[in-house]
Amino acid sequence: MDKFLLLQQVLERLAEDLLQAEHAARVAHETATHEENIAENKYDTLGLEAAYLAAGQARRAEAIRQAMVNWRQFRPSPYDASKGIQLGALVCLVDSDGKQQQLFLGPGGGSMKLVSGAQPVQVISCEAPLGRAMLGKCEGDEVSIGDAPIRQQFEVLRVE
Description:
Elements: H1 3-33, H2 46-73, E1 90-95, E2 100-106, E3 112-116, E4 119-125, H3 129-134, E5 142-145, E6 152-159
Parallel strand pairs: 2-4
Antiparallel strand pairs: 1-2, 1-6, 3-4, 5-6
């Protein structure tokens, strides 16, 4: 699997998400400032609610912009078995039922599902519980997350 192709897919998806967030912020701002939404009494809160929504969408757009900066600067390096799983690793895990999943460990803000060929790939960050648990592990190691009785265990099958 090509990590740089996955990186491009993440950047494309973030760009799409940014356009949607900016559009939503504009629409909410227009609603908040439209003359028909001026409050006539204390119970008329549509304009106020739209202003809160516009501010939230603007914060979301800024978070996506920052994620794009992080992903543009990100350069996945080849797997080094002496260091174990690090940022940029492409990892294949298998659970106790034998179900496999591909994970691409990247910077924050890019949590999403992608498809590489016919293979689904989950992009996660090192801050995610599973991402944190995988750091430093090698092929054949066990990775577990959660607490009893809801504890999930995986085995690291492959790392690229």
